[in-house]
Amino acid sequence: MSPSIPLQEMIRAIRSARTQCEERGVIQRECAAIRAQFRQVDNGGARSHNLAKLLYVHMLGYPAHFGQMECVRMIASPRYSEKRVGYLGAMMLLDEKQDASLLITNSIKNDLAHSNQYVQSLALCTLACMGSAEMCRDLAPEIDRLLRASNSYIKKKAALCAVHIVRKVHDLGELFAPAARSLLAEKNHGVLHGAVVLITQLCERNPEALERFRKTVPDLVQIMKGLVISGYSPEHDVAGISDPFLQVIICFMKDLLVATNTDSTKTVGNAVLYETVLTVLDIKSESGLRVLAVNILGRFLLNNDRNIRYIAMTSLQRIVGTDHNAVQRHRGTIVDCLKDQDASVKRRALELSLALVSASNIRTMMKELLLFLSSCPPGAQSSSCQRHIPCGRKVRDTHTRRIDVHLRGCIACVHCICACAQHRHSCACESIKPSLVQVACWCIGEYGDLLLKGECQETEPSQVTEDDALDALETVLQSHMSSPATRGFALTATMKLSTRITENVDRIRSIVSIYGSCMDVELQQRAVEYNALFRKYDHMRYVTVLPVYEKDGVSLTLICEKTSDSGMTVTLTASNSTDSDISVFTLQAAVPKSVQLHMKAPSGDFLPARGAAKVTQMVALNNPNKVNLKMRIRISYNTSQGSAYQDTQLVSPTGL
């Protein structure tokens, strides 16, 4: 291949290579010819021609370091065409770590003082691209001189070069501060853009400079005002927005004019508004401005562009912890995004909705979130369930409210499964998603006592009996569509119910014993172990009675534990849900003569208001004759007004 062929022909030859080996051969031959040409005396512009081809070889990833000295020689050339290629080669082949870069310092200094603005521009661009700390120190005075030049083209380049110098050598920032302040009086947008970037760098690196440039805020406001309210300018107009790039770079100082006047119907306008919002949220803005920024993001949620909706929710997610009330105003719009067709938008909406759950809105929010859970794709159900659970932990008013989240889905599934069992609609039962059935089984086993009481506050009052709960679990166990894992959930839930119900323990024992000979090894092992619990450790079973006494805000619950064939320990727990404290609280108990009773000391005699603490007392009973056990309890206490109160209640401890 001849070294004198044009660059275009060399590119064509490289691209026509069929294999990488053939391509390497073409490049090696051309590099050898270029290297030979570099050693010869210049023959009418061949140097720039060869260096241009070598730069293309470098762009393809092949070594081209042997062209570094040629770049130095061409930068020193008096010809503009050679200087241009030489400076381009220096920016591509040299960096501040190489000694060759120091050789061009004097050439750059001479070109910075050149009468041709384009030669000056080449020197400025090269220094801003690869200038080392030593070069920056040597040439900083020249850059400061050019910042005060009358040529706007040169001042724009000099400002960006000064930014590079400040980043490299922080101490030189003071040198450029006066010139940077004066650049704000320029009319050229390129100079203004460079000036604002330079001022930003100076403020970030020097607190004293920050205080000094605070005085420039009125100037920046005037520039911004001119951009926002100015008429059509074809030189700076971008889709109807006047120089959005300059607006964005200035908006960190003042944002109100942008936020209230920028056209939000176009993508460019939304970009300016979004940068404004980020600025308001990142700096210590007034509360009114932060609310304005959140409202702008709220309008973004109504945009037809999914990308805009996505970035709006991403930004709201960042600030929901600090500006919770402002974000709450857009809760309805955020919840509507759960129905979006785009999976990424839907995922962001779920994360943000969960972050908005609080004690005041948990009922309405969980209805929407559980509706989303029932309609989300099967692959996303597992992760969605994991995100739902912490919502119940956010609200710690009462134990019942904390688990309303679980009971809401649990009741719905129990009703559905029970209907299937009663009407033999097996197809309807099979249509329930397996993961939802497993969650329902777990909830039935874990919160069966509250489920039977119908205390779920998130839905309409509904009654679920012990038979309903067991029918639902039996339906899951017997369905041929249930996987072994789902049957395992149902069998474990059935066993848990044996400690939470009182009427159907024998039925539970029968259900569990059937699976002791199941073909599935996992189910068989569970059933055998559960049967062993029934046979060997039945005396340790806790039997929980729903409250035995509730009156005037005072409630008393009773928990029975069988300690032997004739012995039982009863735990009495009292609580006060009124707004006033109760003092001198005492409990007394009486049983038939054939039953031996021993009351242990109570945990206290003071019941604080609103269930802040409870009083417990243990009662040991021995019933050797196995008589029908009845226990009369006397409750007495003094109210906060000083009046005495006394009442009695007849209860029947079960388990003996």
TrEMBL record:
Q: Residue ranges of the GAE domain?
A: 541-655
SUPFAM superfamilies attached to this UniProt entry: ARM repeat, Clathrin adaptor appendage domain
Q: Which UniProt keywords apply?
A: Cytoplasmic vesicle, Golgi apparatus, Membrane, Protein transport, Transport
Q: Return the PROSITE patterns for the record.
A: GAE
- What's a Pfam family in this record? Adaptin_N
Compartments in which it is found: Cytoplasmic vesicle membrane; Endomembrane system; Golgi apparatus
* GO CC terms, sorted: AP-1 adaptor complex
**Membrane topology (UniProt):** Peripheral membrane protein
Which InterPro entries does the record associate with it? Adaptor_Complx_Large_Subunit, AP1_complex_gsu, ARM-like, ARM-type_fold, Clathrin/coatomer_adapt-like_N, Clathrin_a/b/g-adaptin_app_Ig, Clathrin_app_Ig-like_sf, GAE_dom
Q: Which Gene3D superfamilies match?
A: 2.60.40.1230, Leucine-rich Repeat Variant
What GO terms in the biological process aspect are recorded for it?
Answer: intracellular protein transport; vesicle-mediated transport
Top-rank lineage group of the source organism: Eukaryota
UniProt family annotation: Belongs to the adaptor complexes large subunit family.
Q: What is this protein called?
A: AP-1 complex subunit gamma
Species source reads Scophthalmus maximus (Turbot)
Lineage of origin: Eukaryota, Metazoa, Chordata, Craniata, Vertebrata
